[in-house]
Amino acid sequence: MGRAKKVVLAYSGGVDTSVCIPYLIHEWGVESVVTLAVDLGQGAELDAIQAKALTAGAEQSLVRDAIRELITDYAFPAIQANALYENRYPLSTALARPLIAKLLVEVAEEVGADAVAHGCTGKGNDQVRFDLAITALNPKLKVLAPAREWGMTREATIAYGERFGLPSPVKKSSPYSIDLNILGRSAEAGILEDANLEPPEEVYALTKSVQDAPADPTYVEIEFEQGIPVGLDGERLDPKMLFEQLNLLAGANGVGRIDMVENRLVGIKSREIYECPALLVLIQAHRELESLTLTRDVTHYKYGIETTYSQLVYNGLWYSPLRDALDGFIHATQKTVTGVVRMRLHKGQAVCVGRSSPYSLYNAELATYGEGDQFDHKAAEGFIYIWGLPTRVWSQSQRG
């Protein structure tokens, strides 16, 4: 007996998700499979992907454009949270998963499916992100993961597909496992699994090497309104265009490469290569603007919130009460995070060289050491005495 009658499958057009279609039908007895390909700015030919799904046996092959939604509803909140998993990875892939899950659930309800499926394996993070997001949005839906259970090697998977008319890949164009959307690109597997080897230049696609980057720096001014990037160099831009332009600018200057060994949720360490030119620059610029507009106590308290936020996203808990609660705090902090940040992009580095805001808390008359200094230096002695009183009492007691 089949596990489900009608299934909506998250479909990328790759070997695993293509083989999922006949596998669900012939091995698990599913009556019909509806595939959903989501355009997240990965540059894939979705018409060809749509046709491939029908060839593989899908009853329907659907495509959804969700680029803008990925940026406005997922990336922008993460930028406001300065979300960097393990203080390095800006969650470019992780942020897309709850959106895909949301669309899967919506399509399942539209077509009357009783289950959804994905092509994730049993050792990655994405299986957790999909399963938990789907469960949070509709706990009545069954979640199927054929690739997690079929136990086939890649060669066996390809051979299985050939039995049902799926063409074998003529060649493996890349030895790496690649994931791409408008927020960034990730690469793993192949020789990258040796954490001691320098990644070859062929791994990268969105960023130039430091050697090939221009000799002269590029300057870009990023405008924010309440923590949301809204323009570049004085021009208001649609979110998609802003990301596209900044990806090109930063990538051309070699900015946005990350080579890290990260801690996966399932308990293993994984060597990952990321390219996130725009997203990294935006988080850095946003943090610089916050340094100008947030009070010290809010800034310091927000550091812990940001760490928790990034862990929630990475660990598949986008749709959770805690993230909703953290969003409430973060949104309150963003009311004054409005202004312009000037960044210098040069030879793999993005450096803030200027920041301004109508809500700036920076007071030059208090900060200056030159003429016009308005700080009351005499008040410092009494402040230090009171501030250090617990230390003084403790020290006296310890010394008898």
From TrEMBL:
CDD domains: ASS
Annotated keywords: Amino-acid biosynthesis, Arginine biosynthesis, ATP-binding, Cytoplasm, Ligase, Nucleotide-binding
EC number(s) per entry: 6.3.4.5
Binding site for L-citrulline: 89, 125, 129, 177, 186, 262, 274
Recorded superkingdom: Bacteria
Record pathway: Amino-acid biosynthesis; L-arginine biosynthesis; L-arginine from L-ornithine and carbamoyl phosphate: step 2/3
Residue stretches making up the Arginosuccinate synthase C-terminal domain: 176-394
Enzyme category, top tier: ligase
Enzymatic reactions: L-citrulline + L-aspartate + ATP = 2-(N(omega)-L-arginino)succinate + AMP + diphosphate + H(+)
Matches recorded under PROSITE patterns: ARGININOSUCCIN_SYN_1 (PS00564), ARGININOSUCCIN_SYN_2 (PS00565)
Residues noted as binding ATP in the record, renumbered to the chain: 10-18, 119
Annotated residues for binding of L-aspartate: 121, 125-126
Molecular function GO labels: argininosuccinate synthase activity
The UniProt record lists the keyword Phosphoprotein: no
Cellular compartments annotated: Cytoplasm
Domain annotation Arginosuccinate synthase-like N-terminal: ranges: 6-167
tRNA-binding recorded as keyword: no
Classification via NCBIfam families: argG, PRK00509.1
Family: Belongs to the argininosuccinate synthase family. Type 1 subfamily.
Subunit record text: Homotetramer.
Protein name from the UniProt record: Argininosuccinate synthase
Species of origin: Thermostichus vulcanus str. 'Rupite'
